[in-house]
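TICKET: design request
STATUS: open
ATTACHED STRUCTURE:
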């Protein structure tokens, strides 16, 4: 059973001038800076976005894989500086895929009076072109493994089994993305979770990426929604190491919170998975 997994934490970022890496806690490195300039006596009036608009603009930039997001904000400078890390996290987690292909970001706030200009520089682990390759591979694969009449559980099982059979765990701990999984055939837990998220979404199944810990350290897996209820899926831990080709386990397929808590833990708020799926047993 796989125990040596590392994940980049997007949630453990500290405030100013901190650095966070994905696969060593799912938290991208961030640098923050700000400066305040006294306004001229007759500054021109300009319309600026409120906080919700700022989050919308940041989210659009992250999802569009922009490396240089520039926006503005009207309001108290000190409050903006204090709120900025949380606003960035809100924007990132509008889309789990975008959040977990982000490698690092830095931002600078320049303020004149209560008018602030914000510039966010971003680095990603996966380019837009690579993401397009993942999407196309997902489309092609779903066309091969999904049959007419399948319900969502059967579709998800087919996706889970395909990933386990075609991806092997990257014991060098250098490949983090769904692109690595589909092109190189190898990835760490983050790549498995990203690919599961992508394929489930493309099959019409709502999914999340969960960031937590196991006995060896940080780890990532998925939550999926079937019939209105959420369940945990950990394709990484269902894939034997060393790789055994077509062998697939379902030990971590559609588990409740109680079942998976036997060896997985998390602190961030995720949708609750209070009940076991029919026929599933707790990991031994």
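STATUS: resolved
RESOLUTION: sequence designed for all positions
ATTACHED SEQUENCE:
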């Amino acid at each position: 059973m796989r125990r040596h997994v590392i994940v980049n934490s997007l949630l453990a970022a500290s405030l100013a001038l901190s650095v966070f890496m994905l696969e060593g806690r799912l938290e991208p490195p961030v640098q923050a800076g700000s400066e305040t300039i006294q306004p001229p006596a007759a500054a021109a009036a300009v319309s600026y976005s409120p906080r919700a608009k700022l989050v919308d603009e940041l989210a659009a930039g992250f999802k569009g894989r922009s490396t240089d997001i520039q926006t503005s904000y009207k309001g108290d400078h000190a409050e903006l500086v204090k709120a900025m890390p949380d606003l960035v996290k809100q924007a990132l987690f509008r889309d789990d895929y975008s959040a977990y292909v982000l490698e690092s970001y830095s931002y600078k706030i320049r303020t004149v009076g209560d008018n602030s200009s914000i510039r966010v520089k971003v680095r990603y682990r996966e380019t837009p072109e690579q993401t397009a390759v993942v999407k196309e591979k997902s489309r092609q694969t779903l066309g091969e493994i999904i049959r007419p009449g399948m319900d969502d559980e059967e579709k998800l099982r087919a996706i889970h089994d395909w990933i386990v059979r075609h991806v092997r765990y990257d014991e060098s701990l250098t490949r983090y993305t769904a692109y690595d999984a589909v092109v190189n055939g190898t990835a760490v837990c983050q790549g498995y979770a990203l690919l599961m998220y992508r394929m489930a979404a493309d099959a019409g199944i709502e999914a999340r990426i969960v960031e937590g810990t196991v006995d060896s350290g940080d780890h990532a897996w998925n939550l999926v929604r079937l019939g209105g209820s959420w369940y945990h899926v950990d394709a990484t831990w269902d894939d034997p190491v060393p790789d055994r080709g077509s062998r697939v386990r379902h030990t971590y397929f559609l588990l409740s919170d109680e079942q998976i808590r036997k060896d997985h833990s998390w602190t961030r708020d995720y949708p609750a998975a209070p009940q076991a799926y029919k026929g599933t047993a707790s990991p031994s």
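CLOSING REMARK: The chain is about 35% helix and 25% strand. The mean pLDDT is 86.
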